[in-house]
Specification:
With 143 residues, the protein is an all-alpha fold. The chain is 78% helix and 0% strand.
C-alpha cells in the first residue's frame, strides 16, 4: 500500500527531485557549483522568481511535515521533508552560501529528529525555527 497523492504537481516535483537525487546532482546544484566557493554573479530576476516559488513550496512542505508528524504519520512526514529539501536546494542555488548554511543545518536537524522519533513538540519547535529563518533572512535575500 503506497501513498496516494491527488496533487499531480506535487508528484511531478517529487519525481524531479528523486530523479536528480538518483543521478547524484540536480541542474540547480550544478549551476551553483559552477559559481565556485562564492557566488560570482547575482541571480537573474527569473532565477529569483523561481527561488521565491520554491521558497513558497518549501514553507508549504514544512507545514505538511508538521501536520503529518503530529498526527503520527511519520512516512508522510518524511516524504514531505524530502519535498522540502528539494525545494530548499532550488532556493539555496539563488542565495549566498553564507545565508544558506543555517537553514541547511536546521533542515538536517529536522531530518535527524524525524529519523530518531523525537517528540512531536520538539519537531514542531524545530520547524518553527526553520520557518522563522526562511521568512526573515532568506525571503529578504530573494527580494
Amino acid at each position: 500500500m503506497g501513498i496516494v497523492y491527488e496533487d499531480i504537481a506535487f508528484e511531478e516535483r517529487l519525481v524531479d527531485c528523486l530523479s536528480a537525487r538518483i543521478r547524484g546532482s540536480a541542474p540547480w546544484a550544478r549551476r551553483h557549483e559552477r559559481r565556485g566557493a562564492e557566488q560570482t554573479t547575482a541571480p537573474s530576476l527569473q532565477e529569483k522568481a523561481q527561488a521565491r516559488n520554491a521558497l513558497d513550496q518549501l514553507i508549504a512542505s514544512l507545514s505538511g511535515v508538521d501536520a503529518a508528524y503530529t498526527s503520527g504519520d511519520t512516512t508522510e512526514a518524511r516524504s514531505r521533508l524530502e519535498e522540502a529539501t528539494c525545494s530548499w536546494n532550488k532556493v539555496a542555488a539563488a542565495i549566498s552560501e553564507r545565508e544558506a548554511r543555517e537553514p541547511k543545518l536546521l533542515l538536517d536537524t529536522l531530518d535527524s529528529k524525524l529519523r530518531s522519533g523525537a517528540p512531536a513538540a520538539e519537531v514542531n519547535s524545530t520547524i518553527y525555527v526553520v520557518l522563522e529563518e526562511l521568512s526573515e533572512d532568506i525571503a529578504a535575500e530573494l527580494r
